[in-house]
Predict the 3D structure of the following.
Amino acid sequence: MSAVNGERVPTVFEARVYEALRRIPRGQVTTYGRLAAALGCGSARAVGQALRRNPFAPEVPCHRVVGSDGRVGGYFGEVAGARVTEKMERLESEGIRLAGGRLAEDQPIWEFHED
DNA sequence: GCCCTACATCAAC
DNA sequence: GTTGATGTAGGGC
């Protein structure tokens, strides 16, 4: 009996997104574009899709992903709201400085180019 | 500086 | 085919 629960198994693509996310140390943040590039795709949208569906939340630190221009973006499907507010507070809690709802300019972006 | 529009690009529904 | 937690480029105020 294959019970058809409302759940769905994460795809390989999503798994790669979460895996890359987990290797981000505390106090570091990355962008959708960088993540997408690290995964081999040039579309940040695909990454956003995976994070939005984030079946491993909050195990996966999806709050460490921000826009390339420093925008916090969204959180759990909310582009703006209490979710995003918590996301920003969480970032500050990790030592990340924010400026006007955006990432501080002096905040380094985690690069998956490290070896 | 801020806001909007348009297109690109990939995955999931 | 449409949408989506984006990105880049261009235009207007």
About this structure: The mean pLDDT of chain A is 84. Residues 82-93 of chain A form the longest helix (12 residues).
